[in-house]
Amino acid sequence: MTSTFSRRAFLRTGAAAGAGLTLAVQLGCSPRGRPGAPVTTPFEPNAFLRVSTDGSVTVLVGFSEMGQGVLTAIPQLVAEELDAEWEQVRVEQAPAGEAWNNPMFGIQGTGGSTSVRAAYQPMREAGARARAMLIAAAASQWNVPADQCTTEPGAVVHQASGKRAGYGSLAELAGTLPVPEQVTLKDPKQFRLIGKAVPRTDLAGKVQGAPIFGLDAAVPGALVAVVARCPVFGGKARTWDEAAARAVPGVKHVVQVSSGVAVVADGYWSAAKGREALNVQWDEGNGAAQSSSRIAARLAELTRRPGLSAIREGTVAAGASVVEALYEAPFLAHACMEPMNATVHIEADKATVWAPTQFASGAGMGGGTREVVARIAGLSPEQVTVHVTMLGGGFGRRFFQDFTVEAAETAKATGAPVKLVWSREDDIRHDFYRPVSTVRFTAHLDAAGTPVGLRAVVASPDIVPAGAGKFDEAVVEALRPMPYAFGGVDLSVHNPDLGVPTGWWRSVGSSQNVFFLESFVDELAAAAGKDPFEFRRALLEKSPRHKRVLELAAEKAGWGSPLPAGRARGIAVAESFGSYVAEVAEVSLERGVPKVHRVVCAFDCGPIVNPDIIAAQVESAVVFGLTAALYGEITIEGGRAVQGNFDTYPLLGMAEMPVVETHIVPSTDSQGGVGEPATPPIAPAVANALAALTGKRVRRLPLGKAFAQA
């Protein structure tokens, strides 16, 4: 594969003495200035590739690491085409800046399972260009044609003469050579690193307990802040007892911020005790009357009539039989293991931030971390340095910058560096929740049990307000396009504003819509008197990637083979973020409580970069999805979240973890994401298994609650 060089996307930059060959790769943005103009000043790149004189290769990555493996997979792409020794590869986290934008978003943001997809081609090209320049340097030294030279891991060789030169010895000369116009990328059959389970670059720091997360940030002289926020969504602080808070030993400041009242102290304990002493009186506004029961009734009523049209294909024909069902999913918290936090130091002409953020820089949503701090500090974005730490969980929550705003406002008011820390209760009660959602399905089957029409009405709030007469695409994810051949399809949407903050949650709209659709497909199979696997397969003839993973998961799970008494299997399949996933869950009831013993997953994400990372993300997604399927629910009473910690918002425990078997489909099809797609199928796979086991069809999540109430 030959790649044509564009100076807009790739250029050699100056490097510190002794650094050797330094190349800047820009994933999605052009350097400042008119196209074709000479580059006279450096620009901030989206990723740096540096080959040093000691032979080490350093890749600077602009995406945030939250466990999904970008600090390994992206260097892996470079090292493959560079033909580098993996042991010589180093990785550094990039700072914030427009040139580091994710081209799929137009901002420096990490989410949507996009990182490796966005980097796959340009980072391979980066490695290939560096390799070509190192070969050219060796050929120049040896006075031989470059096409007579090749590489082996970490070195250029001239087989005819037996000469060999390590990359480090060639780095300085290579750095003076022109960047090649064209490079030829490896045929996948030649891959030595891509597709292999190379060791993760971040493993040692995590195992050794290195200070790599946001809460680990240690800035000399920093104070710690906590914020008292109105428990009712949209409420404001009316009065508070500043003197009582200041009387707590260690408390230094009490500051009003946009979200409430901040107490700033020498340490977290003093700040938390000071907050308790504030005795804030709240203006609860109009939100105090909101409740989960009112929301459920409103959404169910909305689904009784058509909404904004999302799909209208063919005619929903009348059939020999009709199947109707109402499905519901609750609000969900992100419950990141590392609660929200940020450390901000504002000085006269600059500001520095340490934050576990998914949105380091960019416009939209009020700005990324860099823009938010710049605005509050009265500085330009270029005067703000953002150190993106590792994230102790993200799942979409850390795209929102409310915690950064609080830290910056407090630092600005106190004149001191401030570490803003949320408690677990803060984190769960002041989240941007996965939206509550309800769907009403009506399907028509012919005399043979084949669907001839489907009508679906969804009611769920937008995450990003779409404006009058429109709806957020997340509301219909996994329903549009409809994967099954249902005949005529009529899908419509209601998107009411419920006054509860909503946000992206791992797999976003697919997380609830796949549960709805795949559970209902099982109901249709039962109505038709057909096996759920065979029923799906017949409806997926025009969706070969869906069908392929469905068949693989069923085969590996032993679909149709006998199970021990008291166990049953359920199956579900879905596409999200460009990847196709099918899962089979094997379940039982233990003392009336659902128990998942085994999950078999078939995963097709197109070209594979690191199978270990894929397997880890599948296991992670299963844990995340099972937590939500069995337990997850934020209930609203009096306009506030009832749940506040893991006693009322439990997570899946180690003893509850099923065996997870991941089967990756070798594929040259289009590349999909990895971090999220295994989340949506697990809830319907478990629900379908429980229905097969007990005859009880649960149409409202969480499943555990339904069986506990039985």
Give the topology.
Elements: E1 2-4, E2 10-12, E3 21-25, E4 47-51, E5 57-61, H1 70-82, E6 89-93, E7 108-109, H2 115-142, E8 149-152, E9 155-158, E10 163-166, H3 167-174, E11 182-184, H4 203-207, E12 223-229, E13 236-239, H5 242-246, E14 251-257, E15 260-265, H6 268-277, E16 281-283, H7 292-302, E17 308-313, E18 321-329, E19 341-346, E20 351-355, E21 359-361, H8 369-377, E22 384-388, H9 402-414, E23 418-421, H10 424-429, E24 437-445, E25 451-459, E26 488-494, H11 510-528, H12 532-539, H13 544-557, E27 568-576, E28 579-590, E29 593-604, H14 611-630, E30 636-637, E31 640-641, E32 659-664, H15 682-694, H16 703-708
Parallel strand pairs: 5-6, 12-23, 20-22, 25-26, 29-32
Antiparallel strand pairs: 1-11, 2-3, 3-4, 4-5, 7-21, 8-9, 9-10, 12-15, 13-16, 14-15, 17-26, 18-24, 19-20, 19-23, 24-25, 27-28, 28-29, 30-31
Helix pairs in contact: 1-2, 2-3, 8-9, 11-15, 14-15
What's the oligomerization state?
single chain
- What Rg is obtained from the alpha carbons, in whole angstroms? 27 Å
| Measured distance between first and last alpha carbons | 60 Å
- Which fold does the CATH topology of the largest domain refer to? Aldehyde Oxidoreductase, domain 4
Shape from CA axes? globular
Low-confidence runs: 4-18, 29-46
Helix fraction, binned, reads 25-40%
The first-level CATH class name of the largest domain: Alpha Beta
